Amino acid sequence: MSDLPLHTPDGRYLVVRGRLWRATNPHLPEAQRQAAVRQLMAARRDVGRARRQGDRQALARAGEAVDAAKRALGERGPVWWNDGALDYNRHLARNTPYAAWHARMTAAEGQAASDG
Predict the structure, then answer these.
(1) In 5-113, where do the E strands start and end?
(2) What is the pLDDT of residue 15?
């Protein structure tokens, strides 16, 4: 089994433990994407620091910074696609239109694992 998360065929989601998570907007300019990723990583470090220190105010600020970075990446907020398709972020794949695809992919992963 690959260490990389599975992505839906349309690239809109990655699948972690059967749940869909919205992928980064692939249309972002690379410099903008890199800047948002740097902001996200810094905000996540701040979350950890605030938790270790028990600082609720700092934790709230860091959480807001994480949210802002994820919105800049297109992982939260308005969807980045424009074909009117619904957003299935955080849904179990089996409860979405991706159910049959996901079942095929997990069956194939299970077969590959048993072959190895």
Answers:
(1) 6-7, 13-16, 19-22
(2) 96
Residue type, 22: R
115: CB partners within 8 A, 6+ apart? none
Contacts of 3 (CB under 8 A, 6+ apart): none
Q: How far apart are CA 37 and CA 106, in angstroms?
A: 29
CA–CA gap between residue 63 and residue 61 (Å, rounded): 5
Separation CA 59–CA 39 (nearest Å): 15
pLDDT digits (tens, 9 = 90+) for 33-71: 999 999 999 999 999 999 999 999 999 999 999 999 999
Describe the crossing of helices 56-73 and 30-53 by its angle, rounded to 10 degrees: 160
Q: What is the pTM of this model?
A: 0.84
